[in-house]
Write a structure and sequence with these properties.
This protein is of the alpha+beta class and 141 residues long. The chain has two helices and seven strands. The relative contact order is 0.25.
């Protein structure tokens, strides 16, 4: 696709939505496609009440724990569980999240761009999102 996503190629993902700025990857991972989630202070960004507006891995862990997620040791599909993954850059700053689909593939919202479906976590690794650093799971509702 481009140098921002060196592992993203025409044959390893598919676009699954039109472009929109209504929501971002964090919201998409949380199952919310009505608002933009981000912890940094910004009047247009939502962040769950009671959590600090700091861009740290620990803060994302706490927020998703509040929604019933626990840390998982793998990205494999597990019957009875849903999974999300947190990406961070080399400085340890969170950058992106993706959600696992029933098929075992992953779905990502690329900023203001499209949602995509991709088979591997490293498909979207690179200079923009860094790498997958934490995988979370929770029992399906």
């Amino acid at each position: 696709m481009n140098s921002d996503f060196p592992n993203l190629h025409v044959n390893n993902h598919k676009v699954t939505s039109p472009q929109t700025s209504e929501y971002n990857c964090i919201a998409w991972a949380a199952g919310d496609d009505d608002r933009w989630w981000w912890p940094a202070p910004h009047p247009m960004a939502y962040w769950p009440p009671g959590f600090p507006r700091t861009e740290t891995i620990e803060n994302f862990i706490a927020v998703f724990a509040n929604f019933g997620y626990e840390i998982s040791d793998n990205s494999l599909q597990e019957p009875g569980f849903e999974k999300v993954v947190l990406y961070a850059n080399s400085d340890g700053k969170p950058t992106h999240m993706a959600r696992q689909l029933e098929s075992g593939a992953w779905t990502s919202k690329l900023g203001h761009d499209h949602d995509i479906e991709h088979e591997a976590l490293d498909t979207i690794s690179g200079p923009i999102y860094g790498v997958a650093v934490k995988i979370f799971r929770r029992a399906k509702k």
